[in-house]
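Take a protein:
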Amino acid sequence: MSKTNAFETNLLNHIFKNVAIGNIGDATGLPAAATVGNLYVSLHTADPGETGDQTTSEATFTGYARMAVIRSAVGWTISGTTQIANAAAITFAACTAGTNTITHFGIGTSLSGVGNLLYKGAFSSSLAISNGITPEISIGALVITED
């Protein structure tokens, strides 16, 4: 069983852009949050898996921290009927020590710690991180498909 394209778009807009979904639950539907808030993009050295959290296989190079992306049209844009993508480049801090090979990304609810991992995926190619490398996800390169 799957969701309709219209509901998939509504769900993506609700999670990523804080847009209310009408006619679900009570008369007001699923309301937008009073405060927009952020989602947090993380880098991973392996697939966090279906049971993973934001810390599962998370990057460990010195200088690394999750990046906040606002839940609005400033942070995310619909890139297809059932897809949403980052509206601006997501630039992480430069590596100052250590090495990692980044293969996956995560989108979760916490700036640090375990957090709820909402979406995860693989990058099309891995990125070797070492001293002086500044990881960046280009505009529109982090695509989430709800299908």
Q: What stands out?
A: The mean pLDDT is 94. Residues 5-17 form the longest helix (13 residues).
